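Project standup — Tuesday

K.O.: blocked on the structure for the chain from last sprint. Re-posting the sequence here as requested.
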Amino acid sequence: MVRNIQLRVSLKEEGTLGLKAKTAKYLGVSEEDIEIKVQRKSIDARKPSIYFNYKLEVYINEPMPTANEYTFEYKDVSKAKPIHIIGFGPAGMWAALRCLELGYKPIILERGKNVQKRRRDLKAINQDHIVNEDSNYCFGEGGAGTYSDGKLYTRSLKRGDVRRVFESLVHHGATEEILVDAHPHIGTNKLPKIVQNIRETIVKFGGEVHFNTKVTDFIIESNQLKSIILDNLKEMEVKRVILATGHSARDIFYLLHEKKIALKAKSFAMGVRVEHPQQIIDSIQYHCKGERNELLPAAAYSLVHQAKGRGVYSFCMCPGGFIVPAATSPGEVVVNGMSPSKRNNLYANSGIVVEINVDEDLYKYEKFGELRGLEYQKNLERLAFTSGGRTQTAPAQRLTDFVEGKLSEDLNPTSYQPGLKSTPLHSLLPKFIGSRLRAGFKEFGNKMKGYYTAQANIVGVESRTSSPVNIPRNEQLEHPEIKGLFPCGEGGGYAGGIVSAAMDGERCAEAAIADY
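H.V.: unblocked you, prediction finished:
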């Protein structure tokens, strides 16, 4: 007999009997007579008490099935037809894995380095303020997702099979906890090994992965993509190309624009990172005064407010995490956030960003045409660079000083390794963004008592939330003007995170072979 049940366990109860014993007690059966499978786990931290909610599949007097819901049968593709994939982030990785399943050979061209060599360039930007344009927190094996919190939450449920992506991650080394957690994440300390395992799978079954290989031109004849030019001037003949270069590959946008290949300006969001001591967020969310209970994870939050007709919202919230420099070129400062798997750092950070409508808000940038959002983005990053002292030191301000419009005499301790410089962000940020951020922070302080505090810093700028450019495609996921070119993932404007990018990669792989 199989039963599906919902079990609600208080924080006090969670630390006593095991889950199996609780389930048996709830059903009024012997613990020896049941096997349980956790389908979903979440925390309800609303007052007055904290509860753990479990969705369980219970097998009573019968064995629990051991077979996995998904199997991944990769074929030897060493002599198969090639699919060229530009970029080895989540979209490119899952496009390649899908090619293996479908019997086609993925040939991956990645401008950056593998995860091991990439670490040296991350050290250089953190400690020496040196930005390698091809190897940084955005470029390299695994893309921007490798050195990130590894959040797996997505709303893109209609775009593909979310569970299939989760199972694929487990197949390549992620813990099975991601299959049941309501808001699963992997952690920046574990992602590099998983990414390496994916690469080893691709190579084992006959695919190719080429690092330090940058695409610099497309050769097109009669609206058909014929070949690509690499940075060593080598020309490579192609039939199908999946373009999965990510939202920060500006050189690709410029290249397509110069070749008069259709692009579209796309709305996006920009703002700052706010960083609190984690203990403050814990005390607000778990309504506790001292240290949080050891059974509870570092608390997260999600906030949104409408200010003057534009959304102001939290983005990529990282409990127990740290802020990192995410610039991809010298002369710019960009900040992002990430967390280790245990989320045990002293600070919580989140992007707080303002929606930007490229058709209504960037009229001063109309001369840049479809790249106007990109140019606006670049200008704010240059402003952060100059105001921070022309290094990777980031401009910052105490949260309350920013809202009240005064320079901070000093700043709070921070997780941002290159360091902070007290700067009047309230007057430096464009009024369009700054005024809405101030309104948003005030409202967030009303929603979360204690959030609005002088113990928090804001750090600029959070500008790479999504691509400011859309590379159009038709119903077959192919560029409407260039046959053989399949824009994919975040860089094309079709994803917003690891899972949605992975699903889009799979779809593009299927589309690329449809009439091959």
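K.O.: great, moving the ticket to review. The radius of gyration is 24 Å. The mean pLDDT is 95.
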